[in-house]
Amino acid sequence: KRLGRMIQTFLDVERLSDGQMDLKREPVPLEAAVEACLARARPLAERKSILIRGDGPFPGTILGDGELIEYAIYNLVNNAVKYSPSGTEVKVFSAPKKGGVSLSVADQGIGMDAKEVKQIFRKFYRTKRAEATGEAGTGIGLSIVEQIVATHGGHLEVTSEPGRGSCFTVTFPVAGE
Fold it and tell me: Could you report the per-residue pLDDT of 29-68, keeping only the tens digit for each?
């Protein structure tokens, strides 16, 4: 079921990118989207003894497709949990940006080197460290996230270091700003 949903999201995002489909333009409160994603990710985090810390508030309303925005946020949080060792922490926090808001997901996981960071948004790319963890993955999640963010007029950045974790920051324009 989860794979079917990911394939459907992938196809929807491809259609949006190709202009074959119009992006929904509904108000999506960031706070509600983040809280829903954290609630979904907590069971996996608890199984791995990882603390997810949502350092809210998460102010702002994004104009767009609520399902796709939640998919993007959840993917970043889920990856952070998936690629972190037990006993660590995943922190989710927000900051205002000119005309928008940024949301960051920081982990204490396996991290990546600069060469891997350059490749990370390529479809089907997985780092050697990610493969070595034994965690299942397709390598398309981050490329979908990047496309979702771009279709909403935002951008995605990552900072990372091997063995010291990664921080993914997505910036969205905010409605009415």
Answer: 999 999 999 999 999 999 999 999 999 899 999 999 998 9
The pLDDT mean for the chain works out to: 84
Look at the chain and count its residues: 177
As a whole number of angstroms, the distance between CA 40 and CA 71 comes to 11
pLDDT band of residue 142 (cuts 50, 70, 90) is confident
How many whole angstroms separate alpha carbon 53 and alpha carbon 149? 23
Buried b (16+ CB within 10 A) or exposed e, 81-93: bbbbeeebebbbb
Torsion region of 36: left, alpha or beta (phi above 0 gives left; psi -120 to 50 gives alpha): alpha
